[in-house]
Structures are given as C-alpha cells and as structure tokens.
C-alpha cells in the first residue's frame, strides 16, 4: 500500500487512465505539479479538453486497439462523437481482441497538454508510455439494456519530454495555486498556499472578492491583467503583494489562466511563486504607471472596461433597471452609492480593508 501511495512522487510525471471514450477515469494528484490542474478538476472530464488540437487525432489513434479509430465523413460527427466530444469509442467483445499481454496493446507517443504553469506557449509536451488494458467495474449497458463487457482503457505514465532544469526543481516546492470564480472570488487553495498565507479555505472565502487580500497600490495593476485574462484567457506574469493572516504583505509572482468547460470559461487557476521583498520592489519600480481607468471615480469595477468581453453579458447594460435591487447598493461595511463610490469598485474594496495593515 505504501508503495502505491509513494509511487507518483517518485515518478518524474503522473499516472493517467483514459477510457475508450476519451474520458479521464483516473489521474494521480501529481498532475498538479506538471500541468497545474487539480486532480478533481480533470477526473471524469474529456481528455481532449486538455490536448492541443493538432495532437487530438494522435491520441484518438492510440486509444484504438488497432491504431485505426473509425472516421466520420468531413463535416459530420460519428454517432459516438455526438454523444461524447472527441469520442472514438468502439465496443468490443473480449474474444475480438488480442490477449491483454500482447505487444499490440503497448503504447508510447507524444502529445501536447494544456499547462497552467507554462508562461510561453501554454502547452507542455508529454511522453505517454503504457498499454491498453481492460477497465473493470464500469457496469456500462448497451442500448438494449444488457451489461457490456469491460472495455479497453489507456493506462499510462505521462512524463515531460524535456526534463526539468535544476532551477525548476528548486522553485517547484515554493509554488502554490489558488482557484477563483471569474470575478476573482477565492474558491480553494492548495496546502502550500495555506502555509504561505496562513489562511484556511473557509477564511479565504469569507471576505468575498479576492481583491480584499491585495495591496491597494497593486490593485489596478492586478485588475488590468484581470481584464486581459478575461479577453485572452491568460493574465501574463503579475507581481503584487498579498495580505497574510499575520497582517504582513507577501510579494508573489502570479500567472492566472481561465479554465474552460464545454467551450465556456468556468473558473480561474492562479499559479503563484513567493518573492523576497527586494525582488518585489524591483518589479514595482519597473511597473508601468499607465492605467486603463481611474481609481477614484468608480470606473475600476471588477473586470469592467471600455472594451466588451466576448461571450460575457455586460452587467452594467441595464443600469436604469435597478429599482428592485436597492439592497445591492450597500455592502457589508455600509458603503453606498450615495457617496459616489460603487460598492463593486476597487475603491470600495480598499475602504473595506483594515487600515492597520498599512
């Protein structure tokens, strides 16, 4: 048992089990160290959501026992693909397949996977090495209601094509990740983040917007990159200060990425690396002071800018129809639009912070 638990940590990679339909049946928790996705975020999701579009056919090919998946005519979806995006499942009877220990079922190939930790291309090339084996305990049924026999699934170890550098190995132990709603409200934080910041997940969620934890002098810089991320899917490297539970400011270098589900943004994953104060100060001196909006007039609303964000309704479009929602004009500190400050603005967020932290 101990060997099974410690095996993923000993690997320079992670374990992956993918069904013939292309669904991730299992992933070891170490996937987070290589791709930035939490284990629970990827399990039972389509593997093709993570794979580069140019490599999806190669992955489908390797899911098929004869490396020859069925192809639908151009512009048409096969019946299987209509049920599951990217599906290439074919139901077999065990006696139609070669023995499970046959060399025909061994697999070794390379695919590019979406990586939340990569700041250049956004993808990491992985070598997948393993074999097709029968996946038991699925209890799937055919259209007539009969129980289907166990089907083949890919059991593979996924390792980076390019070994990590010594610097990457050293810094990996300091990196932590947080999960947020689209307006940056915290949802979750990994174990390393809890150690660096000192908060529990419940304490992070209590304060509402994640901007409550950001230094006032860094808020507009973060908001500008937040807007960029909502438009492009990635914030780019952002250096700012986070408030720890001990009321101290901790410099971090962060990169935020949108995570999509069924083609729509679902949440934000932020990968953060702690910096020493001197390094943070250097970034502050280099920071551009050009800002896309004004801090004090209430224009700095959370990811609201002069440019429409494709796929998102404008929450400010129907400003005149707010008579039924007077309660929303007051926040937990009693701030009101009567004083000219929108409770959703960054100025309102600053006014809610404890002055003692500065």
Automatic annotation (TrEMBL):
GO terms for biological process: xenobiotic metabolic process. Its main location: nucleus. It holds the Pfam family PAS_3. Keywords: Activator, DNA-binding, Nucleus, Transcription, Transcription regulation. SUPFAM superfamilies: PYP-like sensor domain (PAS domain). GO terms for molecular function: nuclear receptor activity; transcription cis-regulatory region binding. Residues 318-329 have a biased composition (Basic residues). One of its GO terms (cellular component) is aryl hydrocarbon receptor complex. Residues 334-344 have a biased composition (Polar residues). Residues 314-344 are annotated as: Disordered. InterPro entries: AHR/AHRR, PAC, PAS, PAS-like_dom_sf, PAS_fold, PAS_fold_3. It is found in: Nucleus. Residues 1-70 form the PAS domain. CDD domains: PAS. PANTHER family: ARYL HYDROCARBON RECEPTOR, ARYL HYDROCARBON RECEPTOR 1 BETA. This is AHR protein. It comes from Psilopogon haemacephalus. The gene is Ahr_1.
């Amino acid at each position: 048992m101990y060997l099974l638990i410690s095996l993923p940590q000993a690997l320079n990679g992670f374990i992956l089990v993918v069904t013939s339909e292309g669904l991730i049946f299992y992933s070891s928790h170490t996937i987070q160290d290589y791709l930035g996705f939490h284990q629970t975020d990827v399990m039972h999701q389509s593997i093709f959501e993570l794979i580069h579009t140019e490599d999806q056919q190669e992955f489908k090919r390797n899911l098929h026992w004869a490396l020859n998946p069925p192809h639908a005519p151009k512009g048409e979806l096969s019946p299987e693909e209509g049920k599951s995006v990217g599906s290439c499942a074919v139901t077999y009877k065990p006696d139609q397949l070669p023995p499970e220990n046959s060399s025909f079922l061994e697999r070794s190939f390379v695919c590019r996977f979406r990586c939340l930790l990569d700041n250049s291309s956004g993808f990491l090339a992985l070598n997948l090495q393993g074999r097709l084996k029968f996946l038991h305990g699925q209890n799937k049924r055919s259209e007539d209601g009969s129980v289907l026999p166990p089907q083949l699934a890919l059991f593979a170890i996924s390792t980076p094509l390019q070994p990590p550098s010594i610097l990457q190995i050293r810094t990996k132990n300091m990196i932590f990740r947080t999960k947020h709603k689209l307006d940056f409200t915290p949802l979750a934080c990994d174990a390393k983040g809890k150690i660096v910041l000192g908060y529990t997940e419940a304490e992070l969620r209590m304060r509402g917007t994640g901007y409550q934890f950001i230094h006032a002098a860094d808020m507009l810089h973060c908001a500008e990159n937040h807007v960029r991320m909502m438009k492009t899917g990635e914030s780019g490297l952002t250096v700012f200060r986070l408030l720890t539970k001990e009321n101290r400011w901790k410099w971090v270098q962060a990169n935020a990425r949108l995570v999509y589900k069924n083609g729509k943004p679902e949440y934000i994953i932020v990968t953060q690396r702690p910096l020493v104060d001197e390094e943070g100060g250097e970034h502050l001196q280099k920071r551009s002071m050009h800002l896309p909006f004004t801090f004090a007039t209430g224009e700095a609303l959370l990811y609201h800018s002069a440019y429409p964000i494709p796929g998102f309704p404008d929450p400010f479009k129907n400003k005149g129809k707010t008579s039924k929602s007077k309660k929303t004009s007051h926040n937990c500190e009693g701030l009101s639009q009567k004083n000219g400050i929108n409770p959703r603005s960054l100025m309102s967020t600053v006014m809610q912070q404890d002055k003692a932290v500065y």
